[in-house]
Amino acid sequence: MVKENKQIPIKLSAKTDFEHESTDLIANVLYRHLSGLQKSMMPNGANGANVLWIRNQAKRWYIEEQRYGEDLIIGGLINNDPQAIEAGFKMFDWGFAHQADDGSFFITGDRFHSTSFFVQSVAHTLLVIEQSPYSEKYANQVARYKPLVHRAARWMILPNVWKNGIRRNEPYTHRRYLVAAALGLTGKLTGDEELIKYSRESIKDGLSLQLPNGVNPEKGGYDSSYQTVGMIYAQRWVTYFPNDSLTPKVAQMIDKSLSWEQTRILSSGEISTEGNTRTGGREKTRDGSRYKKVGPGSQIRAFAYWASVTGNQKWEESARKLTKFYYKIP
Hints:
By secondary structure, this protein is an all-alpha fold. It has one domain (7-327): Alpha/alpha barrel (Glycosyltransferase), CATH 1.50.10. Helix content is 57%, strand content 2%. It contains 14 helices and two strands. It has a two-stranded antiparallel ribbon. Strand 1 and strand 2 form a beta hairpin. Helix 2 runs antiparallel to helix 13, helix 4 (69-79) runs antiparallel to helix 5 (82-96) and helix 13 runs antiparallel to helix 14 (313-327). Residues 1-7 have low confidence and may be disordered.
């Protein structure tokens, strides 16, 4: 069940994305308390900062806030939690209820970047549903969302939209892999080769930015949180495009990136924020209520998922060290 890419010594598992998502730490730690993800959601599906917008307590809403339906649905599939799955669909429904005819999301803040988050989450979720034991049960939902997410992805590659979006993304390496996953996974879902072409462009751009020490720069420096956020999207791209000519380079990039990330894990298991350019008291969240923190979930996921993809236990060990510190789970 393992195929070796002859260009590099990294072996890639033939498991599906659903199987990688079902790996121990992701399934039993990150998807353990799905009810907590629903606390920030209104009964109509609006989530996070968008609740403030509905209450006229914020000037902008962000389509990206609805992306957490991805965790609810995939976690629900893995843990047989229909309530979480339905909550995730409500989040998606609220988002698509604000979609314009051209595929964009009317007056959402940070249009290109915020849309890329949501497109990735929906496309990824639909692909995982199709691989799951519940594919037939939720086939109608997949059929309903597929043209909607396709339309949003096609909006992203409109010439002026693409040009402006890429320009605004320039300081942030992780966004290259987010855009690649959003367009690539939607292309895989819908059979749209043009989206995959744009996805590969974004991948190549991201690869060109990695520093020799493995850092993927964020705002002219490094960030121990966004480093792994980008890796999550790059790993998904590898899973869905294992035979692409770029995949060996992406796999090497991920290895180097995670090797650098390991140097940011303290002996206690805590992630160091020293020198970060974005998290750890540097930038505020969308609603402005607090400073961005290092999210241990993205670090655990990046290491655990890559351990499943490569079979390399050193990544699993890092994931468990983080889990022990942040979740008190041995």
